[in-house]
Design goal:
Layout: H1 11-22, E1 25-26, H2 38-47, H3 62-76, E2 86-89, H4 91-103, E3 109-114, H5 120-126, E4 130-135, H6 144-150, E5 155-161, H7 173-184, E6 190-194, E7 219-224, H8 225-228, E8 237-240, H9 243-256, H10 262-271, H11 277-295, E9 301-302, E10 310-314, H12 323-334, E11 336-337, E12 339-340, E13 353-357, H13 362-373
Parallel strand pairs: 1-11, 3-4, 3-5, 5-6, 6-7
Antiparallel strand pairs: 2-8, 7-8, 9-10, 10-13, 12-13
């Protein structure tokens, strides 16, 4: 009997396959199509022939753990213990799966804020837990009255994705304070903070769970080098958590992957000595601003984009079709692929919204925008 009977081919695969069939510009899947930093490539080429191809320690390459600790101290003024509070994972998705399957038991409830990234619910279901999906407000900000009303004695965890995929919104200080007020009443609830877009933020600063003194002792934070360094195919992420939580997660991790691929860990560890994460944000802000400027005279309505490399648009002025059908027509008739937002909701809430990925070359964005402005 299947543990995931309702899981079918992901919308990302469907849209990318359709885009390939029709030769469309693919702004659906969330990965860059521009070259990696030449410095990272040079490091990779040089170390490839070195003796770095055997297992690293289970928790991660010590040098990389040290570099993460230094970056966390620099960015968030949080001191983390490299021996007991950091774990290198095979991408943030594996880290999220590990965290959920370590702490969620049969019948436990996990609060997930919709629209939500598609890996959360399957991870909860495999653990035997019950996903409790709670819709964000229409502007994709959190609705704390709604969140609090769903909490029961069975609630074990809440998943917070900030900066948010697919909406591109960022939590404010007031949002964190509201969550802290709620969770003070429920000491049994753990927080899983999915912060994979932490270094892709714009005018509003990213507030990390790393900085929340009230919540740090009960929070697991997932980060992604794939997103931050535009090497999604390397599948290297990491978790930060207090020692008592990390101790338990390492038990699951060691039998899930044991250790993450060594080459990427060595290359990233050296690259972290030269990369400037503030430059990452600047680069993506330029792309966001370019894409928004190119679409300003189109019939698409642009939603706020505080962070991530996704731009959500409303197409009400163009069509009243459901978003899945409209997204398919966008590919087959207009040559641009996007992701319909309804697929990120449990109940397929359809507000006529699409998600475009702007982690693309300027030439790709210009060509896509020309087609979109012609609709």
């Amino acid at each position: 009997m299947s543990k995931l009977p309702n899981i079918t081919t992901s919308i990302f695969s469907v849209m990318s396959q359709l885009a390939n069939q029709h030769g469309s510009i693919n702004l659906s899947q969330g990965f860059p199509n521009f070259p990696e930093d030449e410095r990272l490539l040079q490091i990779s080429e040089r170390i490839l022939r070195e003796n770095i191809h055997q297992y690293t320690p289970m928790a991660g390459l010590p040098l990389l753990l040290e570099k993460i600790a230094l970056q966390t101290q620099k960015q968030y003024n949080r001191k983390v213990d490299i021996t007991s509070e950091i774990l290198i994972t095979a991408g943030a998705t594996q880290g999220i799966f590990t965290a959920i399957n370590t702490f969620v038991n049969q019948g436990d409830e996990v609060v997930i804020l919709d629209p939500s990234y598609d890996s959360y619910e399957p991870s909860v279901l495999v653990a035997g837990g019950k996903p409790v999906r709670v819709s964000l407000n229409d502007d994709y900000t959190p609705n704390f009255n709604r969140i609090e009303s769903t909490i029961t004695s069975k609630t074990k965890m809440i998943v917070v994705n900030n900066p948010h995929n697919p909406a591109g919104r960022i939590w404010t200080e007031q949002d964190f304070e509201a969550l802290e007020t709620i969770l003070e009443k429920h000491p049994q609830i753990l927080v899983l903070g999915d912060e994979v877009y932490e270094y892709i933020t714009f005018t509003q600063p990213h507030i990390s769970f790393n900085t929340r003194e009230i919540l740090k002792h009960r929070t697991i934070i997932a980060s992604s080098f794939g997103k931050s360094l535009h090497v999604t195919g390397w599948k290297v992420g990491y978790l930060i958590a207090p020692e008592n939580l990390m101790y338990e997660m390492k038990k699951v991790h060691q039998f899930l992957v044991f250790s993450v691929n060594s080459f990427s860990q060595y290359a990233i560890a050296e690259y972290l000595e030269v990369v400037d994460f503030s430059e990452v944000s600047k680069m993506y802000q330029q792309k966001r601003d370019l894409f928004q400027n190119l679409l300003k005279d189109s019939r698409f309505e642009l939603m706020p984009c505080d962070g991530t490399y996704f731009q959500v648009v409303n197409y009400n002025a163009i069509s009243k079709e459901n978003d899945v059908d409209f997204a398919k027509k966008l590919i087959t008739e207009h040559g641009v692929a996007a992701i319909p937002i309804s697929v990120f909701y449990e109940d397929a809430t359809d507000k006529h919204m699409l998600r475009f990925c702007f982690a693309k070359t300027d030439e790709t964005l210009i060509a896509a925008a020309e087609k979109l402005c012609g609709i």
